[in-house]
Amino acid sequence: MTEPTRHLIRGGTVIDGTGADRLAADVLVEDDRVAAIGPPGTVKADGAAIHDASGLIVAPGFIDVHTHDDNAVLVGPDMTPKISQGVTTVIGGNCGISIAPCVMAEPRAPLTLLGGGAFRFERLRDYAEAVAAAGPAVNIGLLIGHSTLRLGAMDDTTRAATAREIDLMRERLGACLDDGAIGFSTGLYYKTNFPATIDEVAALAELLPDHGAVYTTHMRSEHDGVLDSLEEAYETAGRAKAPLVISHHKCAGPNNWGRSVQTLKSIEAARQRLDLSLDVYPYAAGSTLLEPDWIDPEIRTMVSWSVPHPEHAGRDLADIAAEWGCSQRDAAVRLNPAGGIYFQMHEEDVQRILAYPPSMIGSDGLPHDRHPHPRLWGTFPRVLGHYCREKGLFSLEEAVHKMTGLSATNFRLPDRGVIREGAFADIVLFDADTVIDMATFEEPERPAAGIAAVFVNGRQAWGKEGATTARAGRFLTRH
Ligand code: ZN
Ligand code: CU
């Protein structure tokens, strides 16, 4: 049976992603684009497959602006954790960690976040070809990571780069931008990136404006130094004249709970002079490497993976430490290399940042973890079901905008993130009354409820029976 190339999505309520009010409309999809939108019953559709959307919201497919899916799209191209949430585009290469340009047999932390066997792409175009060959269910655009560049250009990443090394990194970043990279990311919090000065980062970020590309940053500190780190990010982006995205904004550690009042005030003021946006995930716990230096016995920490002790993934570090009769820090040393989930934010800060109108939604999901943070499977339905419907943080139109139109605008993804004639047909149908995340910290790999159908580039990727065989995602470039 050949797959239909025309689809009529009939009887639904369209929320178009721009933030505009919903309206009852039928949507016709032809090939990879939205061909027509009209009042119910008025759109002609000879020979189209009919999809009954009555009682459902018809929205642009969600854009996950903060992912580490660079390798996941190759090794798990069905991308079930994402497509099951209604996500149709992911942005990889965040936090200074990108799969390209890098050739390395045994990745060093933090590149280990991308899983094994990832680093074999010297050029971005080689990776783009691999994506095309894998045929993932979702689109992917890539940021180029500063740690990746540093590990490739420097024999020792515990210091600032020399002028020569900066030149080499500029050359490689420039080639990737020519190949369509959508931006450059730092993860200044990580050891491999921390020694980089503002001068070094700005020397790379200044390549971005000519390519219409963005600078994203996992800042040096999200703990006590969060306000200083914001200032550093503003200065870097200001000097490079590049648009700035603050990644997974948070105020981490009990010392800093409540400080989002100040950080958002700072961001709001800086937005008057800078092209500045931010992303956030809807949970009060973060997840990254399990670094012994980062363990705070004041907060709960869970183990998400461990090479020497895989059997402890999903357990609390405190319980493991008690069993072993040692400190949590020493337990972390024994578990390494490992990943952790840190219950380090305050719910009020999470809600304040989510509700801030310029905030976009990004999952920061870690697809290779044995026991992942539930954000990998639950982020978008959680915003729609828990924070919009149950908590009333924002209207449904606003919630959808934060995960579609706003994201496409900030990341310069043309014809994505909106439902309008001529735009790419990335579309999700969901039930606003039942959509909810099912993934929990204990059972993190449960698909969300309430996502009825998902279309990617005009082909149906998800439906009543779950994933279809259509995998129509593309590598997104800036041109
Ligand atoms: Zn990060
Ligand atoms: Cu991240």
What's the structural blueprint in terms of helices and strands?
Layout: E1 6-14, E2 23-30, E3 33-38, E4 49-52, E5 57-60, E6 62-64, H1 72-75, H2 80-83, E7 87-92, E8 102-103, E9 120-121, H3 124-134, E10 139-145, H4 146-153, H5 163-178, E11 183-187, H6 198-205, E12 214-218, H7 226-240, E13 244-246, H8 260-270, E14 276-280, E15 286-289, E16 301-306, H9 317-324, H10 328-335, E17 338-342, H11 347-355, E18 359-361, H12 375-390, H13 396-402, H14 405-410, E19 427-430, E20 451-456, E21 459-463, E22 466-467, E23 475-476
Parallel strand pairs: 1-4, 1-5, 6-7, 7-10, 10-11, 10-23, 11-12, 12-13, 13-14, 14-18
Antiparallel strand pairs: 1-2, 2-3, 5-19, 8-9, 15-17, 16-17, 19-20, 20-21, 21-22
Helix pairs in contact: 4-5, 6-7, 7-8, 9-10
The structure holds zinc ion and copper (II) ion (CU).
Copper (II) ion binds next to loops.
